[in-house]
Design brief:
By secondary structure, the protein is of the alpha/beta class. The protein folds into two domains: 178 residues, 3-Layer(aba) Sandwich (Rossmann fold); 136 residues, Rossmann fold (3-Layer(aba) Sandwich), CATH 3.40.50.2300. Helices cover 38% and strands 16% of the residues. One of its GO terms (cellular component) is cell envelope. InterPro entries: Peripla_BP_I, SBP_2_dom, TAT_signal. Keywords: Signal.
Length: 353
């Protein structure tokens, strides 16, 4: 499950797309090709810029939740792969866990090993704030990945996704498509994620605001659990409740596997759907253009690779190659691009399985 900081923080952050993060932080990827090559992580080989020139050796400690979701699994894989691109970086990863106390203990172990920099994606940002502060107090800079700590004193730099922006971009795509179809009074469904999470609230608010600007609104909204099973059940309920839909936004592409299964089972195709997060399955469906899924808004799993690059730069007291400032920024919000059939080939390499 994905979670980032409060919307207010997002508005203050430096809003950057992956392609604008500077020559020391450019992202690309290699994935399976038509010849069946095994998947590789979303990484970028070190370039010849000053920020990528080998320097002081940096040991980066890494902690994230258990890989029980495609996006989280990609986070850990991408971090490890990116560290492997640098000859001056050692990578020490704690075992992933969804137990707050276990993650705190794992990070304490990394602190005791005196790693140079820590990259932490907390299972619960609030609960892990104290351990981030403990690392900072010990002189170990912390790169807080996505789920934000409660106190900015607990981290040196935050990098993560834009949940509100996901909703906005999904809404804007829905509006554009409906207007192109000449539909003035649409029936719009929203299949949200876990409703008590801030990320879900932010995504829904962004979607609502984008629709409202065009005079549209959500007609039916139900929350799932970021799983395929819950997506199938919730979408089945929505389809039974509404005999006609014009558009659907599903917050999460893993959840979307079940949503699509319910749609196929019901034999419905009168509407179009937008996904969320940017899974490979979703992008392949978009490319094939054989079903209702026509777009997805990405929540880049490549952010962990960027976090490793940032940790290295911080550990070496370097700045980002294309920026004038001598230090890494204190916060970076990644852009949620809208992927359609027209640009899917550009984004497939950074999709997650």
């Amino acid at each position: 499950m994905k979670e980032t900081g409060p919307t207010a923080m997002g508005r203050r952050n430096m809003l950057l797309g992956a392609g604008a993060l500077g020559s020391g932080l450019l992202l690309s990827a290699c994935t399976s090709n038509s010849n069946g090559e095994a998947d590789k992580a979303n990484v970028k080989a070190a370039s010849s810029t000053s920020g990528s020139t080998p320097g002081k050796h940096v040991t980066v400690g890494f902690s994230a939740p258990a890989a029980d979701h495609g996006w989280i699994a990609a986070i850990t894989k991408n971090a490890k792969a990116q560290a492997g691109q640098y000859t001056d970086v050692s990578f020490q990863a704690a075992e992933g866990t969804n137990d707050v106390n276990a993650q705190i203990s794992a990070v304490q172990t990394l602190i005791s090993k005196k790693v140079d920099v820590l990259v932490i994606l907390p299972f619960d940002g609030k609960a892990l704030t104290s351990i981030g502060a403990q690392a900072m107090d010990a002189g170990i800079p912390v790169v807080n990945l996505d789920r934000v700590f409660d106190n900015s004193l607990a981290y040196r730099t935050w990098i993560g996704g834009d949940n509100y922006g996901m909703g906005v971009n999904a809404g804007q795509y829905v509006v554009r498509t409906l207007k192109a179809k000449g539909i003035s009074k649409p029936v719009i469904a929203e299949i949200a994620g876990i409703d008590n999470l801030d990320l879900t609230k932010q995504r829904s608010q962004g979607f609502k605001d984008a629709l409202a600007k065009a005079g549209f609104s959500v007609s039916i909204r139900q929350a799932a659990q970021f799983t395929a099973d819950s997506g199938q059940q919730v979408m089945s309920n929505v389809l039974q409740a509404r005999s006609k839909l014009d558009a659907v936004w599903n917050h999460d592409d893993d959840q979307g596997i079940g949503v699509e299964a319910a749609i196929k089972q019901a034999g419905r195709s009168e509407f179009f759907m937008v996904g969320g997060a940017g899974s490979r399955h979703a992008m392949q469906e978009i490319k094939a253009d054989s079903g209702v899924l026509k777009a997805t808004v990405v929540y880049p799993s490549s952010m962990s690779a960027s976090a490793i690059t940032l940790a290295r730069l911080i550990g070496q007291s370097k700045g980002m190659g294309d920026l004038v400032e001598q230090e890494v920024p204190s916060s970076i919000t990644l852009f949620s691009a809208t992927v359609t059939k027209d640009n899917v080939d550009q984004y497939l390499p950074t999709s997650f399985t």
